[in-house]
Write a structure and sequence with these properties.
Length: 159
């Protein structure tokens, strides 16, 4: 099993300070996905169809991960919508319900989101697996959701 430092380093290539949001204010999972997809689009990472593709995929294959007391979501979609790979990270001001990836009839109260925009299918799967392992670390998640400044959150994530 990889240690936290090794898993963190995998995402450094895809992280940008303009795509990290601390205490994002969102009303529901659709709002979270929309805000993060809009940020990727405005940053030039994805095409105009990316947001709807993520929303559509989330209905069929939800990404809420019941990782413990602090839950996460990892919304993503097909690589064909991506121009330049990136990950958008956001801690949420208040918990937002996402459907559980294991059972979409159940809700997961999410406080941290990592939206993936990968260009290669294999890299998306590998990165997703590594992020899932990382998000099992409740102490690390607790630290992330307490950070109230986007630049500080960026610094923590890229370390």
């Amino acid at each position: 099993m990889l240690n936290v430092r090794e898993r963190r380093s995998e995402k450094v290539d895809y992280i940008d300070s303009q795509l990290v949001f601390s205490q994002l204010d969102a009303t529901d999972s659709t709002d979270v996905i929309s805000q993060l997809a809009d940020a990727l689009y405005q940053h030039g990472n994805v095409n105009a169809d990316f947001k709807q593709a993520v929303l559509d995929r989330e209905k069929v294959y939800p990404t809420g991960l019941p990782s413990g007391e602090i839950c996460v979501a990892v919304p993503h979609t097909d690589v064909k919508y991506v121009k330049k790979p990136a990950i958008v990270f956001a801690s949420l001001k208040k918990a937002v319900d996402f459907a559980n990836m294991a059972d979409k009839s159940q809700k997961v109260s999410v406080r941290f989101v990592a939206m993936l925009a990968m260009k290669e299918p294999h890299s998306q799967v590998t990165l997703l697996q590594n992020l899932m392992q990382l998000f099992q670390n409740q102490d690390y998640l607790a630290k992330l959701i307490k950070i109230d400044d986007s630049e500080k959150l960026y610094e923590e994530l890229k370390d």
